[in-house]
Fold:
Amino acid sequence: MQFSKPIFLLVTLLAVFSPALEAQDPRFSQYYASSWNLNPAMTGVFNGRWRATVNYRDQWNSFLAPVPFRTYAASFETRYNVGANNDYASFGLGAMHDEAGTARFTQNKVHLGGAFLKQLSGGRNSSEHYLSAGAQLGFGQNSIDWSKLWFSRQFDTGSETPDLGAVNGEPNANANSPLYLDFNAGILWYVVFPNEGFFYAGGAMHHLNQPTISLIEDNKETLYSRWSGHVGGQFPLTENFAVLPGVQVMKQGPAMETDLGINFRYSNNDLNELALRAGVWGRVGNKLDKDLQMDAITIVGMLELNRWMLGLSYDVTVSGLTAANNSRGAFEVSLTYFHPEYRRSRVTCPKF
Structure:
């Protein structure tokens, strides 16, 4: 069954102005503070008994208010020591809600996940190397609020205004996509140095089964698989100062994006640790038929207080969109709580 002309026009416009609607995923500028959505192998990669994380992103409020793009995510993970060695099994639950535009195009996802962290080498006074492999299995559904839209058949030529009570004549338009099964997998290697510096490298594949997400009856629209690779670390400069560089590369369908930058960290190295981070990150992506270009610069500030980590960031638009939003891009907040182990132990995981 083919699109009618009004729906074809609507979908075309949405595809031009909203990358999230091109069968692609929402993403966070603070990707390192949303490890559940970054790589399933990062499940359980933290120091403590369990970890809870929430993320929120508000994008393009400057010219799309009161209906900007908004993304919410939350996850909970726990890990257990297994066997005689310092190996761990971890399990988690995560959810994401994303909404975009006047018609409230919405993506909802819920996943269960797990990972196994295997110690490759290391000891009390030497670097510890770990390899982690993880997977997530869950469900998702997309939807749109057709009552927020009007079509040419609803235009009243007498009053020259749309009649929202009139039938839109779009029998092939569904409010919701089918409930789809979704599968993700990833791998991660990291090393923790005796001075608590660390380095990591990982990769992940999301939507390996390419589920159907159509909002019309033909069910031909599928969700592109997304692959990503990321590297980074923490490198102490002095007893109190360290740098945390990082790079993430993603590709999903025709879209490609690279995030790279650096955070600077100051810590008091106390038992009740207080640490501050500040950094600058850049985002580069392809724009339809154009080559790669700089899209935004992200300013980041983070506070670590014992078991808590709070991150705030703002995207400053540097692309051609600045003419519409005056460089005002997206605001993000992340909050993570780490519940300590029953007994104090040596650091075995990075603190992203």
Q: What stands out?
A: The two ends are 48 Å apart (CA to CA). Residues 184 and 209 are 9 Å apart (CA to CA). Residues 19-339 form a domain with the Porin fold (CATH 2.40.160.40).
